[in-house]
Amino acid sequence: MKILSAEQLNEADKITLENEHISSTRLMERAASLVFNEIHTRLEGADIKIKIFCGIGNNGGDGLVIGRLLHKYGYNVEVFIVDYSDKRSDDFLINYDRYKKESSSWPEVIEENTDFPEISPGEFVVDAIFGIGLNRPAKGWLAKLLKHINNSGAFTLAVDMPSGLFPNKAPQKDATIIKANYTLSFQNPKLTFFLPETMNFIGELQILDIGLDRDFLKEVKAVAQLIGKREARQLYRPRKRNSHKGDYGHTLVVGGSYGKIGSIVLSAKAVLRSGAGLCSVYTPKCGYQILQTALPEAMVITDKAEKELSEIKPGLEPDVVCFGMGAGKSQTTANAFKALLEETEKPMLIDADGLNMISENMDFLNALPKNSILTPHPKELERLIGSWEDDFEKMEKVKDFSKTNDLILVLKGSHSFVFSEGNMYINNSGNPGMATAGSGDVLSGIIAGLMSQKYEPLVAAILGVYMHGLAGDICAEEMGVETLISGDLCDYLGQAFLALEKE
Ligand SMILES: NC(=O)C1=CN([C@@H]2O[C@H](COP(=O)(O)OP(=O)(O)OC[C@H]3O[C@@H](n4cnc5c(N)ncnc54)[C@H](OP(=O)(O)O)[C@@H]3O)[C@@H](O)[C@H]2O)[C@H](O)CC1
Ligand SMILES: [K+]
Questions:
Q1: I want to staple 270 with a disulfide (CB 3.0 to 4.6 A). Which of 31, 442, 497, 499 is the partner?
Q2: What does the record list as coiled-coil region(s) (predicted)?
Q3: What is the mean pLDDT of residues 182-188?
Q4: Atom from ligand 1 closest to the CA of residue 9
Q5: Which pTM does this prediction carry?
Q6: What is the pLDDT of residues 257-271, one digit of tens each?
Q7: Which domains are seen in the chain, by residue range?
């Protein structure tokens, strides 16, 4: 699904009105009715106190329509006009009049602190103060009102966006923003819904298709692509019936050091569980028995050194090399890594200590095969590209870094991001249970396993990140987020592939 900016959504709005020959008031009615339906379906007429806070723009107009419909269906609803400006929009005014005509009570107007209503924890708040039109931080009594709502403990539903959050810009450090329990957003998700600094404001997210112009939405260049099941399924290639293990490639996992052999066991297991035909592991001598015992399906080749990688001479030609997990970063290993980079022509996957060694020897980047994949977590990323002011600066820096160096960068996080050629893909599977030791080693193995099956590196990165999250989601459903450990992710990959194939 495309993530669009406020400007693009306003443009879509305009084109829809022209092409459908409808008024903006009709479109508002359509959008807000969908929000009403969602509320009505869940509340089923319950006698719960509903307070709707409406701004004076079109987000506020939506709030008035929702209020009118809830009133019509007999809900216990109170509407408040948050009067932060006298530039009321036309559709706000039309719906303000309609609300007054069709409802027995008139909305209360809030103009200062003393007008704030009391809100109890058991109430239901609808936040329709600001939508995508927010263009500066909320200040003064308005910011206090947002805090008042946040502190009430009431269940808060945000219409289109939590008020105070920009759709495609970082908030100021001290900004006041509605902390929604649930966000019903129109047509397309907005970028700040997925960034680490702002994702916690939206609560649970649901996108409502309000029928904006299909052709426009198809053609417009997205700010980013959100990768869900539908998108992942389009990338997935089911196996042909008539095939053998040679068709699915050979992955070489290189890494491990004394005390860190578990990392490559996890990666190698994930390589095989994601469908690679063959997996070899190149590791210091101390890893031999562990690997042969823990993963008999893998072949093991050992370095001449006992405890660390000293020269990487596997004597075979794999389809893809997955390097770095548990490798350590001694000078000996760094030299071996540099030589490996220089000898390898096919795109590689580099993780963990491989990334750290690059950060300490940035000239290694010149030897990295084009289209290789780097999979840093935020700390490893910082070592690679330096620090950033906010999520937006980080994204710009990563885009530049991946473009300048002709590589694909997977930034791991609650929503992992994939960057390639200036484009951004945001993963929408996964859960907090996956923040556990070795989770990244499994991800590297999945992506490398897909690469060896001749998925293009970018496709392998996007699909791999999605499958990793999906395995985690299925696993967490069954065992809970606390209990999940990385080995489980490998074990649940099978269910994840089955779930992907299912409609
Ligand atoms: N896009 C669509 O397809 C549809 C959108 N709908 C809804 O419309 C809103 C967007 O409405 P809009 O009127 O553009 O903007 P807002 O309601 O979010 O904001 C209103 C005005 O508030 C002013 N503003 C911005 N920031 C502040 C601030 N910090 N303090 C005070 N005032 C502020 C700003 O005007 P200025 O001229 O003062 O700058 C805004 O214009 C969208 O989110 C949907 O809910 C439709 O109903 C369906 C179609
Ligand atoms: K809102």
A1: 442
A2: none
A3: 98
A4: 1
A5: 0.96
A6: 999 999 999 999 999
A7: 2-222 (3.40.50.10260), 246-501 (3.40.1190.20)
